[in-house]
Amino acid sequence: MNGLKIITTIFLFSVLVYLSGCSSSKPVTVPGGESAEPTLNETFDPLMLEDEDITFPEEVEIPSTGNSEIVPGLDTQPAPVEENQVVDGFRVQILATKDIDQATMEKKQAEFQFLEDSVAVYIEFDSPMYKVRVGDFQNRDEAERLRQIARKKGYRGAWIVKTKVNTHPKLPVINESEMEDLAPR
Q1: I want to staple 182 with a disulfide (CB 3.0 to 4.6 A). Which of 62, 68, 112, 156 is the partner?
Q2: In this structure, how many other beta carbons lie within 10 angstroms of the beta carbon of residue 67?
Q3: Would you state the CATH architecture of domain 88-167?
Q4: Is the entire prediction scored with pTM above 0.85?
Q5: What residue segments make up the domains of the chain, in order of their start?
Q6: E strands along the chain, which residues?
C-alpha cells in the first residue's frame, strides 16, 4: 500500500507543477506604477520631408507633315507586333541528360543544325533531367515533319512530346564566330 501512496503523491505533484506552468504571467511593471509596454512613435509624416517630387515628362505629339507620299514605302503606322502566348502544343525532344553542360552544348549544336528550319531550341529542366527540345507546334502533324527532319540530321532518338509552346517564339541568332565553332569539320 505504501507504493500506491508514493505513486499517487508523485502524480498529484506532477499535475500541480503542470497546472502552475499553464497560468498566465503578470504584466511587468516599472517602479513608479507604469507598465513596461513599448510605446510607438506615430508622429512621422512623410509629407513633411523636403525631398524632390518625381515628375514624368509629358507626351508630346509630333505633328505629321503629310509628306509620307514623297518617300515610297514609308508607312506611318508600324506593323502590329503580335504578343507571344503560351498554349498547349508539341515539341520534338532530341536529348535528355543529367549534365547541364552537355545539354547546353547540344542546344547550341541544334540551333546551328535547325537554323534553316526557323525553329527555336529550348532546354527544359524536369528533375533530374535536362531536356533539349526543338520547335513550337500547335498541331502534331507539323511536329511530325520536324521529327523526320531531326532524324535525317542525325537525331535518331528524336520523338514528339506534348508540352506548353510559344505562339511567337524568339528564334536563335548565331553570329559568325559561333558558326565556325559549330560547323562540322
Answers
A1: 112
A2: 8
A3: 2-Layer Sandwich (3.30)
A4: no
A5: 88-167
A6: 29-30, 34-35, 86-97, 121-126, 129-137, 159-166
